[in-house]
Amino acid sequence: MKQNYAPAYKHQAIEMLYENVYWVHGSIKMAPAMSMNRNMIILKQGTSLYLINPIRLNEAEENKLKALGKVKAILRLGDFHGIDDAYYIDTFKCEFWCQAGQSTYPDLKPDHVITAESKAPIENAEFFIFSTSIHPEAALLLKDKKLLITTDSVQNWTDWSHTSGPAKLLLRLMGFKLRLLIGKPWLKRVTPTGKSMLCDFEALLKLEFDSLVAAHGKPLLANAHAKLSAVVSETFS
């Protein structure tokens, strides 16, 4: 039976961040007149591609993706992302990685369950797990590039690209500003009652990284560790 996939929402072209690291700045429509930006990261290893938080592409950019290499696997690092995962799995017959306990898009069964002990499928990379979170959330560190890849936990908003007027107003009311931040709606949703996520962010700051790219916003290519340390202190003060 043919799946009813989400369409390819508006997005920009595939762009290189570092050697063998690419990103796509796109969008997601949540409701009429409500759209916001989101990002996909593409990691190339040999002839294989690993997509983090996949975004369905238009035909021209999908052809460019195919020219880059073969989609080997998709990695879902956050429970609230995954609308395009089924499209990639069915179209490219690729592996699916995610943590257990997915609730937003729960129907897909992972080929590999991401845990704190999981070896990342990419060389010189390691998973980080937000162990306190009541909804699955992870990050991926590319150690050789000192690049931290996050989903909703840490976001770097520099403009309101691909964000509609009503969504922009709502995001501002929820505490979003044009800066590096820990998303307040995400933090509220994933924090256990009466507890704090501070220990997770303290553990995250023990990783060595200087740049960061999240599922929302734009890449932060310098001083990410120092800036996130300041954000963590401010958020949990």
Task: Offer a few descriptive terms.
237 residues; Metallo-beta-lactamase, Chain A; globular; seven-stranded mixed β-sheet; four-stranded mixed β-sheet; alpha/beta; 28% strand
Write up this protein.
The protein has 237 residues and is an alpha/beta fold. It has a single domain (15-235), classed as Metallo-beta-lactamase, Chain A, CATH 3.60.15. Helix content is 22%, strand content 28%. A 7-stranded mixed β-sheet has the order 1-2-3-4-5-6-7. A 4-stranded mixed β-sheet has the order 8-9-10-13, with no helix packed on it. Helix 2 links the parallel strand 5 and strand 6 (95-98). The model has no long low-confidence stretch (mean pLDDT 96).
Note the topology.
Layout: E1 15-18, E2 21-31, E3 34-45, E4 48-52, H1 59-68, E5 70-75, H2 85-92, E6 95-98, E7 112-113, E8 125-129, E9 138-142, E10 147-149, E11 154-156, H3 165-173, E12 180-182, H4 184-190, H5 198-204, E13 211-213, H6 224-235
The overall pLDDT, averaged over residues, is 96
Strand content: 25-35%
Note the total helix count.
6
Largest sheet: 7 strands, mixed
Unreliable sequence segments: none
Number of domains: 1
Annotated CATH topology: Metallo-beta-lactamase, Chain A
Q: Strand tally, please?
A: 13
Going by helix content, strand content and strand pairing, the class is alpha/beta
- The helix content is 10-25%
Strand order of the largest sheet: 1-2-3-4-5-6-7
At the first level of CATH, the class is: Alpha Beta
CATH architecture: 4-Layer Sandwich
According to CATH, the homologous superfamily is Ribonuclease Z/Hydroxyacylglutathione hydrolase-like
Q: What is the C-alpha radius of gyration, as a whole number of Å?
A: 17 Å
The rough form would be described as: globular
User: What is the distance, rounded to the nearest whole angstrom, between the alpha carbons of the first and last residues?
Assistant: 52 Å
Sequence of secondary-structure elements: EEEEHEHEEEEEEHEHHEH
